[in-house]
Amino acid sequence: MARTLDTTAPVEPKTAGARPAGRRFRQTAGRQHHAGPLTYVLLVIATVVSLFPLYWNVVAASHTGERVVQAPAPLLPGSRLLDNLSFAWDQVDMGEALINTTVVAGLVAASTVLFSTLAGFAFAKLPFKGRGMLLSLVVATMTIPPQLSVIPLYQIITDLGWFDQLQSVVLPSLVAAFGVFFMRQFLLEALPVELVEAARMDGAHSLRIIWHVVFPVARPAMAVLGMLVFVQAWNDFFWPFIALTPDGNPTLQVALAGLGAGNHTVDHAIVLTGALISTVPLLLVFAFLGKHIVGGITAGAVKS
Question: I need a surface site. Which of 37, 174, 252, 272 has the fewest CB within 10 A?
Fold first, then answer.
């Protein structure tokens, strides 16, 4: 009788404690990986490089103007920090400029977040004729240099009697095309259209949908946009320098333009002292609100 050849592959015996590959992957997927020494070295270098300009600003603000411009530049703090702070604060009424900047940046950030969220929701989830064309026009406005609108905008505020008034800086910045596009892109993915339709079927009107559905979903993006706009409005110099005067209602950046001026010379230590004063409030905002903003971003990024 012919002998048949068994081609069946031998089965390897299972070793004790062996686990399937899928199970092994699931167990290691959620495990935290610890950073190596090189990662910490790179993080320390990045931190030092990022903080050095702020440190040198403090060093320069603690010396005289003559010492700041000498070579080599000072790298250790001096003894004139309090004197320079007092002189800079009184020379251009830094207190009034700080209040004006806080009001302008706060109003601009709040209005931009509100109007950008409403417009972004409309472009993302509300079907209407010409939506794509209008969105293209909004995005196209970001390509126009702001210098082109200075002359007509200046004529408008002078005709209205708003020159050297804070509304001349706030009203032109109530909404930004970048904010509309940013919120539209976020709501396009984060807000399911079924959620909006379910709210309408329950009898909710548009304002209730925006307040109870859109705003809670868009909260992380609103926090990020508000912080970006607040910092931009705080540091804005070009248009406030045209619409405001250092002796009237200046913002911090306009006040810094007239700081440290003397007899045909500029005291760079005093100028850097004013820059330090204008930077400290932003650092405090990040220190107190940074954790909440990062927490909102993390919460918005988690998908169920």
Answer: 37
Mean pLDDT by 10 residues, the chain (304 residues): 48 51 49 75 93 90 85 85 87 87 94 94 89 91 88 92 91 91 91 88 86 90 89 92 87 83 72 88 80 60 48
* pLDDT score recorded for residue 284: 84
Provide DSSP, the chain.
Answer: -PPPP--PPPPPPPPTT---HHHHHHHHHTPPPPP-HHHHHHHHHHHHHHHHHHHHHHHHHTS-HHHHTSSSPP-S--S-HHHHHHHHHHHTTHHHHHHHHHHHHHHHHHHHHHHHHHHHHHHHH---TTHHHHHHHHHHGGGS-GGGGHHHHHHHHHHTT-TTSTHHHHGGGS--HHHHHHHHHHHHHHS-HHHHHHHHHTT--HHHHIIIIIHHHHHHHHHHHHHHHHHHHHH--HHHHHH--TTSS--HHHHHHTTTB-SS-B-HHHHHHHHHHHHHHHHHHHHHHHHHHHHHHHHHH---
Phi-psi region of 33 (alpha: psi -120 to 50; beta: other; left: phi over 0): beta
